[in-house]
Amino acid sequence: MNITRIKQAIANIEENTLALKWLEQYGVNLEDRDKDAFSIGIRLHYAESCHGTTEAGRILESFARLSVRDLVATAIMNCRNTIELERDAIRREASSDA
């Protein structure tokens, strides 16, 4: 039984559970037109010294803002999936010593 893996799985479950609760309660109400409710920032480190990096970042931020409902829905699905995967990992680790 790998105790380190179990501890990491527990930490991932806790983090994703908290995020899931927030996303389900508040994230689903985010509107792209409500400019005071949230902001999305993107930092482009890849090719950051190239001409157009700042502009590309602004375009990506705008697109992310317009796609916030899809982003929230995807994040909710990802949290649920991660929680299940980590629970399975804990069960496997617990049974591997049996």
Give structural notes.
- It is built from three helices and no strands.
- The mean pLDDT is 92.
- It has helices at 3-25, 53-66, 68-96.
- The longest helix has 29 residues, at 68-96.
- The chain has one domain (3-96).
- The termini are close together.
- 67% of the residues lie in helices and 0% in strands.
- With 98 residues, the protein is mainly alpha-helical.
Largest sheet: number of strands, sense, barrel closure:
none
Radius of gyration: 18 Å
Structural class: mainly alpha
Number of helices: 3
Weakly predicted, low-confidence segments: none
Q: What is the H/E string?
A: HHH
Characterize the overall form: elongated
User: Approximately what portion of the residues adopt beta-strand conformation?
Assistant: under 5%
N-C termini distance: 9 Å
Helix content: 55-70%
Average pLDDT confidence is 92
Count of the domains = 1
Number of strands: 0
